[in-house]
Specification:
Elements: H1 2-12, H2 30-63, H3 80-112, E1 132-139, E2 142-154, E3 157-165, E4 186-189, E5 193-200, E6 205-209, E7 214-218, E8 224-229, E9 234-240, E10 252-258, H4 260-281, H5 289-303, H6 305-308, H7 326-329, H8 332-341, H9 354-366, H10 377-383
Parallel strand pairs: 1-5, 4-10
Antiparallel strand pairs: 1-2, 2-3, 5-8, 6-7, 6-9, 9-10
Helix pairs in contact: 2-3, 5-9, 9-10
Length: about 375
């Protein structure tokens, strides 16, 4: 009895109660609201149908029960209703299905028919154009966001703003958001038509935010479009919805929707950071080993640790160890070639700057007890 009372006390305690969501989260996009409305429309039809069917069953069980002397009609199937019910009932069900499908199809068409033209174009259709693009790139196991219309011009070349979003460890995540928090969130403006261009550099991923009302696959070699207009400021969390490997659970998505003015301020801040990085990466500074090791650790922890482990000991056969490996302790040129151009399951990293590449390669060759040569930015430049 005492054990039973203790168990009941635990079940009734506030701390033991989980949050039971009885419905979808409140949508914050127009398409999400339409999907939600179709869902509720379907649920109301299902609820009414359930009540009618159960009422008929209950009436039949009470009215025609054996205790009242009723006997089963052995010739019911020969009556008019018995014959035609096999046609009428499926037709009614199919009619309801088409009723639901009619409402869903228009929403689906709107979702698939992403706007193709920027609203800034002089001949753009104001009712069917987008204000900005965001390229969503899936990696094992993190997300990269690129803003094609926002960036800086440097040495005659345009560099778009990029956001690399990786999961935070439990001790760094905000309360209650372990595996749902990232180091860099995607910042977007509200009341802005945004076209999302989804792709991947390695395996299948899927970008999914419940409040947006949809998810979209990210497939290597393809660009799949979605679009949405967020109507509410706030932080919205999602997750990769396609099994993509060992750390599939560590691909959270965090989007911060802000006012247009705040978004402009954020863009200017990111431009300043990007310009400073470009100037630093393209300088003729003679980097010391210590400087390259400090910078290289940061690049490694960001770009490489997900596969090769923070301690350089790798993750199984697919992601070999770098600690004491022939690559890290062997020819520097071979090491540079693999990092630049990739090998088997490893993508190439040519998009990184000469400084970042020299730093991370130097770090891999001299961390965890490795003791090999230093790679300078000039070595990377000559190898490209």
């Amino acid at each position: 009895m005492k054990k039973l009372a203790t168990l009941l006390g635990l079940l009734l305690s506030f701390s033991s109660h989980a949050e039971y969501g009885l419905n979808f989260p409140d949508p914050v996009t127009d398409i999400g609201q339409e999907i939600y409305d179709v869902h509720m429309f379907t649920m109301w039809i299902a609820t009414v149908a359930l009540i009618i069917v159960f009422a008929i069953m209950l009436f039949a069980l009470i009215k025609f029960r054996k205790s009242k002397g009723y006997k089963a009609d052995q010739n019911f199937h020969k009556t008019w209703f018995g014959n035609w019910a096999w046609v009428l009932v499926p037709v009614m069900v199919l009619g309801v299905d088409f009723w639901i499908a009619g409402r869903a199809q228009s929403t689906l068409d709107k979702f698939w028919d992403a706007p193709k033209q920027n609203c800034a174009h002089e001949n753009a259709d104001a009712k069917h154009c987008f204000d900005m693009n965001i390229k969503v790139i899936g990696h094992q196991w993190w997300w990269e966001y690129e803003f094609p219309e926002h960036g800086v011009d440097f040495n005659g070349k345009f560099y778009p703003i990029k956001v690399e979003s990786r999961p935070l460890e439990e001790e760094d995540a905000s309360e209650g958001n372990y595996l749902r928090d990232v180091d860099n969130v995607l910042v977007i403006p509200v009341d802005t038509v945004i076209r999302y261009l989804n792709t991947s550099v390695d395996v299948l991923h899927a970008w999914w935010l419940p409040e947006f009302g949809f998810k979209r696959d990210a497939i290597p070699g393809y660009i799949l479009e979605t679009w949405a207009t967020v109507r509410k400021e706030g932080i919205f969390r999602g997750q990769c919805a396609e099994l993509c490997g060992t750390w599939h659970a560590k691909m959270p998505i965090v989007v911060k929707a802000v006012s247009k003015d705040e978004f402009k301020q954020w863009i200017e801040s990111e431009k300043a950071k990007l310009l400073a990085e470009l100037k630093d990466a393209n300088s003729n500074k003679d980097w010391s080993k210590d400087e390259l090791m400090v910078k290289g650790k940061k690049v490694y922890d960001t770009m490489c640790a997900g596969c090769h482990n923070v301690n350089g000991q790798g993750l199984g056969v697919a992601f070999p160890a770098l600690k004491g490996s022939p690559i890290a302790l062997g020819s520097a040129n071979q090491h540079i070639d693999i990092v630049l151009n990739g090998k088997k399951t490893m993508p190439g990293w040519k998009h990184l700057s000469d400084v970042d590449l020299s730093a991370v390669i130097t770090y891999e060759r001299n961390a965890w007890g490795n003791n090999a040569s230093v790679v300078k930015p000039a070595d990377i430049k000559s190898a490209r």
